[in-house]
Design goal:
- The chain is mainly alpha-helical.
- The chain is built from 4 helices and 2 strands; from the N terminus they run H-H-E-E-H-H.
- The chain has a two-stranded antiparallel ribbon with strand order 1-2.
- A hairpin with a 5-residue loop joins strand 1 and strand 2.
- Helix 1 packs antiparallel against helix 2 and helix 2 runs antiparallel to helix 3.
- The longest helix is centred in the middle third of the chain and has 25 residues.
- The radius of gyration is 16 Å and the shape is elongated.
């Protein structure tokens, strides 16, 4: 049985730090207004999804055993890559450089 993903306290702090950094950058660029403000929450949901996908890959591996006993790729690997691309596109659409946000939070996106 696969253990349900639960965000750690460290991940929760990092999530809030990223969220605040994006909002700060949007306000500095005078972009924090609807409908763009809602995109911050959409970005954070994608961030949450990335954590879940990474957890699945760590738990089950890159390849998973099927009912028949053969192996197939874990679909989470492809979904993770696509989710990361979507996150970068979303940042671009709200006028935020991923490089700028990364520098502000001192970590990766």
């Amino acid at each position: 049985m696969i253990k349900k993903f639960e965000m750690t306290d460290s991940q929760k702090r990092q999530r809030e730090k990223i969220r605040k950094s994006i909002i700060k950058e949007m306000k500095a660029n005078n972009l924090y207004k609807e409908p763009l403000a809602d995109m911050v929450e959409r970005y954070m949901k994608l961030w949450d999804n990335c954590l879940m996908l990474e957890h699945d890959i760590e738990t089950r591996g890159v390849q998973i055993k099927t009912i028949k006993g053969d192996y197939k790729k874990n679909d989470s690997t492809v979904v993770l890559v696509n989710t990361n691309k979507q996150m970068l596109i979303l940042l671009e659409k709200i006028g935020i450089s991923a490089t700028k946000v990364k520098a502000d939070i001192g970590g990766s996106i």
